[in-house]
Each structure stands twice: as structure tokens, then as C-alpha cells.
């Protein structure tokens, strides 16, 4: 059984290094206690690195990322540092393209005690996963759409190859969740198949994949109705899978339901590689003060352990991921040790220490 895992660690910019430090401290502690090995290798990349060297994602960092079992990334980019064409430094997007990370995984969780803008009915819990296709769709012509004086065009691309990989991933995830006692083994395709032929194609590929999974159920929903249901009955969702732009918008709506960006983790997954990172950015406005919320980063690290453990058939690693998630959720739910963005007064280190203390009970 695989017991040694190489992790490429990108501390990044702004609050990035401040939230990565407690996350790697926790990971090292878990591995030491359970007897598996995590080789954590720091990789330079980001806006500060670009300002110093003229490179935002050095080849050596790319090589380490390619060779790693997983990539743990905090946040990259600073509004003050830009490429000559004026766009922001975003090596995370370069990684997504280079490693073909087609599935953006955004878990949305509201559990007892957690602050949310929703009026939660008694006994309901929100626990679903939004999967956003991350390499094509309406982002396909990103940065190179055609613009003349009088009109502008972008292309929406849906390919059979990527969609088949995406839907296969979605149904496997629904299966894993069901086996773990979360979710009911249901996948919803979110599209706009009534208006666009590209989405009718997307839906037909979804249906072909659904037909292979007799043990799971599926349905379709239009994206506009889905936005309504995010607010009215998100407890009914299990696994949702959608196109890039729709997923971009719905994932921020999901983070809003969870009570903010500071608690929203994510993963970008391909066939051979995966990046785990919080949904939020580098928050330069609070960098250097030791007050950034580390929970989204720690929850991303937990997702990484669960994913690596399942993939490598190492149940100890997967179980540590589930424990770390449960411990972090317990701290958020109790609400005694929260950072400023969640209405508390804890420092980054105090919040991380509370998770370590909660791990003992999980
Ligand atoms: P990006 O373009 O990289 O997504 P952004 O400008 O959209 O970045 P963020 O960097 O995510 O935004 O920050 C948005 C706001 O949320 C900021 O005011 C920031 O202080 C706050 N914020 C984001 N992440 C955290 C965190 N982990 N802890 C506390 N506050 C945070
Ligand atoms: Mg943003």
C-alpha cells in the first residue's frame, strides 16, 4: 500500500503563506501520528515572485507539481502586480490549463451551528457538491474573443472528450459519497438545454453516462431555476455538474450560503493531477496581520487527504481527511474560536490550534 505522498506546496501571495503554515503544521502532525509520510515541498510562484524574478510560475515549480501526488495551493495574485498587458498574475489558471484539471469541485456545507444567511428549516442540513467544468465552456476563448468597434463574440465550447471525463467523475463522486453515507447517490446536470444546442449536446452526453450507473439516480435542471433552488431548497441537492461559466457563478453563490469565502474549500481535478485550494483570493487588505481565516485552507487540505487516500487505496489517509474536515466543521459550528471575517476575534494561529484540539475528539 502506498504510504509516502509527495505534495507540491504553493504558499503564494498575501495571506497565502500565513494560512498555509498552520495547514502544513496540521498535516505533518496527522501523518506523524498515523504513520504515513507526507513529503511537503515548497514551490515558488505568484505575484511577489513575478515582481522579483519576472517569472510567475517557474519551470522548476511546474516540474515539482507534475511529479507530485497532489498540489496544495493557498492564494496567488496581488492587485498591484500585473503582467505587461495589465492582467493579474494567476499561475493557478496556468496550472489548471497545463495539467488539464477539468473538474472544479466545490463542496457546499451548512451544518448545525454554522452561520448562514439562509433560514434553515429544523432538521435540515446542506451537504452537496458542485462540479464545475474548468477548461472549456464559455471560458474557452478567454482573453481572445473577437471584438470590433460594433460587436464582440466569444465561443462556448463543449467537447465530447472533456464532458465524458467530467460526467464520469461526477457519477464516481456520487458513488463515493453514497458509500460514505453522505448524499443519496444522485447527480443533477445543470444546463440551459432548452435554448442552446451546445447544452442539449452536453445533456445528451450526461444521459449516456447516467445510463451506465444503475445504482445511482439523475435528473436535469436549468441553471436559472437552480439559482433559485440554491436559496429555496439547497438541502435537496447531492452532486451537481455544470459548464464553466454557470459553475463560476453558482460556486460563489454556494460560498455565500456557507457564510463566506473564509470557509469555502475547493479542488481542481484532472486525470493524473489535482490542486486543492481555498476559494478566496490573497486578501492583501489583511495580509501580514496574523488574522486571516485558515479554515478554507485547512478544509482544502482535508479534501486533499480524502482524495489521495481514496485514490491510493490508503484508508488511513482518507480517514484522516474526513477527521480533519469534521474537526474543522466542529470548530466553525461551535463558534467560540472564529476569525474576524466570521465575527470573532481569534488570530490565525488560535483558529488553527482550535482545530488541532478538536482533532483529539474526532
Ligand atoms: P481574487 O481576485 O484573487 O479572487 P478578490 O479580490 O476577489 O481576490 P479575496 O482576496 O478573496 O478577493 O478577498 C475578498 C475579501 O474577503 C477581502 O476583503 C478579504 O479581506 C476577505 N477575505 C478573503 N479571504 C479571507 C480569509 N481567509 N480570511 C479573512 N478574510 C478573507
Ligand atoms: Mg475574486
Helix content: 40-55%
Net shape: globular
Spatial extent as radius of gyration: 20 Å
Let me know the CATH homologous superfamily of the largest domain.
Isopropylmalate Dehydrogenase
Largest sheet report: 10 strands, mixed
Q: Which structural class is indicated by helix and strand composition?
A: alpha/beta
Sketch the topology as an H/E string, one letter per element: EHEHHEHEEEEHEHEHEHEEHHH
Compute the average pLDDT.
95
CATH architecture of the largest domain: 3-Layer(aba) Sandwich
Q: How many distinct domains?
A: 2
Beta-strand percent range: 15-25%
CATH top level of the largest domain is Alpha Beta
Low-pLDDT runs = none
Bound molecules: adenosine-5'-triphosphate, magnesium ion
Reported by name, the CATH topology of the largest domain is Isopropylmalate Dehydrogenase
CA-CA gap between termini = 25 Å
Folded structure, characterized:
Its cofactor is Mg(2+); Mn(2+). It is an enzyme of class 1 (oxidoreductase). Residues 6-355 form the Isopropylmalate dehydrogenase-like domain. Keywords: Amino-acid biosynthesis, Branched-chain amino acid biosynthesis, Leucine biosynthesis, Magnesium, Manganese, Metal-binding, NAD, Oxidoreductase. Its EC number is 1.1.1.85. The protein is α/β, with parallel strands linked by helices and 362 residues long. It has two domains: 1-101 and 263-362, Isopropylmalate Dehydrogenase, CATH 3.40.718.10; 117-257, 3-Layer(aba) Sandwich (Isopropylmalate Dehydrogenase), CATH 3.40.718.10. The chain has helices at residues 16-34, 47-53, 59-67, 91-98, 160-179, 197-210, 223-232, 244-257, 295-311, 315-334, 348-360, and strands spanning 4-12, 37-42, 70-75, 103-110, 126-133, 146-147, 152-153, 186-191, 217-222, 239-242, 265-269, 274-278. The strands form two sheets. The protein has a ten-stranded mixed sheet, sandwiched between helices. Strands 6-7 form a two-stranded antiparallel sheet. The longest helix has 20 residues, at 160-179. The protein starts with a strand and ends with a helix. The model has no long low-confidence stretch (mean pLDDT 95). The structure holds adenosine-5'-triphosphate and magnesium ion. Adenosine-5'-triphosphate (ATP) is lined by residues 15, 77, 261-262, 280-283, 285-286, 292-293, 296, 339, 341.
